[in-house]
Amino acid sequence: xxxxxxxxxxxxxxxxxxxxxxxxxxxxxxxxxxxxxxxxxxxxxxxxxxxxxxxxxxxxxxxxxxxxxxxxxxxxxxxxxxxxxxxxxxxxxxxxxxxxxxxxxxxxxxxxxxxxxxxxxxxxxxxxxxxxxxxxxxxxxxxxxxxxxxxxxxxxxxxxxxxxxxxxxxxxxxxxxxxxxxxxxxxxxxxxxxxxxxxxxxxxxxxxxxxxxxxxxxxxxxxxxxxxxxxxxxxxxxxxxxxxxxxxxxxxxxxxxxxxxxxxxxxxxxxxxxxx
Length: 276
What we know:
By secondary structure, the protein is of the alpha/beta class. It has a single domain (2-265), classed as Rossmann fold, CATH 3.40.50.1360. The chain contains nine helices and ten strands. Its main location: cytoplasm. It comes from Neomonachus schauinslandi (Hawaiian monk seal).
């Protein structure tokens, strides 16, 4: 497990975007070799998406041979609703890059058979060869995707009832009206994300500080589902200074020291155009 600490949200977003960019380029995707990327929604990844769009428009990065699988989608919200995750992904990312729409996979929260939709999503991931890099964010209660506190740490894609804390947090996207906020969602499971070859979790802001503490300094606990990624062989937590406020000083110093060892990954774009 690695913890990468940057000074602020913008630098954390840029670091994450450069890391994703580097991974895709090093993979050398092609017509018979797609890079498979798991993606989150919410406010945290927006800065990362803006940077990825920038790299694409600058000619540094193509998504032509990339397949994506999103973490979740609300149940019962029309696909074209401005707060659906379909709308979020297309407005904030997909329509600005060269990804083939058929390679961008998002769960259908309006499917006639929701369990069949979840099973089909798992099958599509398997048929794609699994996820090379799954990017995620977390809620203040440490949930990843919509794997709310108490979720099984070996769970698969399924229908979930949202916790009240999540509904309250999402009310800001629905004019503050709780009655408009969906109460159920389709979500990948903790086990689904754990199956990825690499996982990167973005955690920014003081309101996520206690969740980061639970994620890395205490034991694995299904009440803090993000803590499961302590047991993944390749997990990177990317955070800003504000998110470290609940960590021990020696923990912060230890991981900041490691960043000098991994210096090339802190600013990986310098070598990309040279093909290194």
